[in-house]
Amino acid sequence: MAENNDNEKLLDGQLFAKMAEGAAQQLRLNAEQVNQLNVFPVPDGDTGDNMYMTIESGVQALESMNSSDLAEVMNVLSRGMLLGARGNSGVILSQFFSGMAKKLVGMEKADAVMLGDALRNGVKQAYASVLTPTEGTILTVAREAVEYAVGRVNENSTIRTLFGDLVKEMYASLQRTPEVLAVLKEAGVIDSGGAGLFYIMDGCNRVLNGETFAVGADGSVPTSPKPAAAVSRFGPDSVLEFGYCTEFLLQLQNSKVDIASFRIDGLLDFLKSVGDSIVAFQDGSIVKVHVHTFSPGKVLEFCRQYGEFLTVKIENMSIQHSETVPDAVKKEEAPRKQNGVVAVCSGEGICAVFREFGADEIVEGGQTNNPSPNDFIAAFRRIRAEHIFVFPNNGNISMAANQAAKLYTDAAVHVIESRDVGAGYAALSSMDLSSDDTDALLSVAEEAMRGVVTGFVSPAVRDVEMNGVRVQKGDYIGFCGKELLVSDADMTQAAAALAARLFASGERSMVTVFFGADAPETARAAVEARLRADHPRAEVYTVDGGQDVYPFIFTVE
To answer: How far is CA 45 from CA 364, 399, 484, in A?
Structure first.
C-alpha cells in the first residue's frame, strides 16, 4: 500500500484487484494442503481446488479491466466468481464476495468502516445461501473473524489494520473449528473451507503489506491452458454455417442510460431478433450477455447505447462445431421439446447409463472435479426444452447447480437434489420423460431417491478412528453418506462388509455395482460372487462404471 497514511485509509479498485490476484495466488500455493483436510480419509479432497478455481474465475474476469473504481471492480470480480464457483465452499465463497459487492455499490473508494460494513454483508449473504447453516465451517470462520476485526475499527483504523485483525482472528477461529464441529475433532482435522478462506484473506493481507507473488510460480493447482482456435478448420473457401458465439460484460453508463430504471426486456427482444441460445441478466450496473448470432457487430453496436464493454468474446461456432459432437448445433436448431435432462457424472460406463435413461447432456464431474454454474448454463443452452431436470449426483455440486438455475432464464430449471450417483440413477430410471406433468415427475424422482442407499469403497489415505471404526492408511473403507461403516485391508472383504451393512438398512431386493477404473478383474469377480452368495434373493447387476477414486459403488434398492 502507499506510504502516505491518508492513502492507507482508503481502498480503491486498482489495489483491490491486486489483492484479489494475491488471494488467488496464495490459495493456489496451498490448495493441496486444503484438499487434504478431508473428513473421510479418502483421496477425494477437492475443497482447495474448488475455492481456487472460484476466485481465479473472478480474477480472470478482471484481466481486461483498468479501473480504479472499487464498486466496478467488486462487481466484475463477484460476477466472475458466481459464474465460476465450484463445490459448496466455492459457492459460499462467491456469495460472500457478492454480498460485499452489493454493499459497495456506488463507492469509488472505501475506508475501514465502509469495508467493514461490506464484510458484514458478505457474511450475511453467505449464511443466507445455505439452507441449513452448519457452525464450525467456513461460515463460522468468516463470521467470527469479521465480527472481531470490525469490532476493533476506530478513527485511526486503516485498511491494513482491518485486514491484519481479520487474518489474525480467522486463523484463531479456524483452529477452533474442531471444538465446534464434532466430526472434525473425530477426524483430527480443521475445516477445509475455513482454511481456504484463510489463505484467500491472507493473500489479500500480504499484498497490503507489500509482498508480491511470482507470476508463473509452481503451485498446487495447475490451470488448464485455453485451447488454441483450430484455424485450419475454417479456410478461405469455408462457409460460416453456425454463426458466432458472442459473450460480453456490459457496464451500464450514467451518461447513456438511467441505470436505476433500466430494464433488460428491450435488450432481450433485440437479441431474439438477431440470434438464439440467449442468456442475459443484470446484476446492479453490470449486464452479462451470451448469444449465438451471425451479426455480432449489430449486437455490440446495439448494446453500446447503454454502456461500455468490460469484456468481449466472439468465437466462430463453425470451428467449435467441427471440434465437438457433430449433432451439437443441430440440437440447438431442433424444435423445443417438453423435458430435457442434465446429469453430472464421471466414468464412461456411468455416463452411458445416464444417457440410456434419458440424459440429454452429461456434465463431466464428481468428487475432485466439480462443475461450475457456467458449465451447467452451457449444458442448459444446448437443450431446447421447456423444462430441464438437473441431477447433480453429489452433495458438493448441488449449490452450483442451483446457482446456475437461478441465472438461466430460457427454460424452467428443476434441480433434483440427488446426493450421489445412486440416487440420481434411481430417480432418472423411474421418470417418464414423455409426461407433461412436471410436479408428478418431481414427485416420482423424490420417491425413488428415498428408496435407495448408496455406498462407496475407497482406499484410505491416513490413519483415523471414526464412528467406532479404526482405519489404517492403505486399508479399504466403506461408507454411506457421511457415515464410515467398515474398514479392511482386503478390498473384497471391505466391499462385502459394506454391502451387508447396506442391505441391513431396510427392505432391499436389488443391488447395482459400478466397478471403478481401479477395480481389478479378480476383485470384480470376487465381489459379484460374494453378493450372490450373501444375498441370494437379491437381483445383482454390474456395470463397468469406469469411475475414479472408488473401486466399487453400490446402489441398493
So the answer is: 17, 17, 16
Query: Do the Cβ atoms of 508 and 490 come closer than 8 Å?
Result: no
| Cα–Cα distance, 410 to 78 (Å, whole number) | 23
Return phi, psi of residue 541, to 5°.
Answer: -120, 140
Torsion, Cα 444 445 449 452, to 10 degrees, reads 70
User: CA-CA distance, 350 to 548, in Å (whole number)?
Assistant: 11
Distance of CA 187 to the CA centre of its chain: 25
- Rounded to whole angstroms, the Cα distance separating 281 from 288 reads 6
pLDDT digits (tens, 9 = 90+) for 247-300: 888 889 999 999 989 988 888 889 888 887 676 777 678 887 878 888 999 999
Name the strand (E) or helix (H) holding 316: strand 307-316
For domain 5-208, give its CATH number from 3.30.470.20, 2.60.40.1180, 3.40.50.720, 1.25.40.340: 1.25.40.340
Q: Pick the closest to residue 81 from 99, 56, 63, 100 (CA basis).
A: 56
| 3-class DSSP assignment, residue 61 | helix
- String of b and e for 87-108 (b: at least 16 CB within 10 Å)? bbbbbbbbbbbbbbbbbbeebe
pLDDT tens-digit profile of 201-230?
999 999 999 988 654 444 433 343 333 344
Query: Is domain 238-321 in CATH 3.30.70, yes or no?
Result: yes
For residues 407 and 388, the answer to whether their CB atoms sit within 8 Å is no
Tell me how long the chain is.
557
- DSSP class per residue in 447-471: HHHHT-EEEEEEE-SS-EEETTEEE
31 Cβ contact list (under 8 Å, min separation 6)? 48, 49, 51, 52, 196, 219, 220, 221
Q: What is the pLDDT of residues 318-369, one digit of tens each?
A: 664 443 333 333 334 456 899 999 999 999 999 999 999 999 999 988 766 7
The yes or no reply on domain 335-445 and CATH 3.40.50.510 is yes
What are the phi and psi torsion angles at 442 (to 5°)? -65, -40
Q: Which residue has the cell 438437473?
A: 390
Look up the CATH number of domain 453-556: 3.30.1180
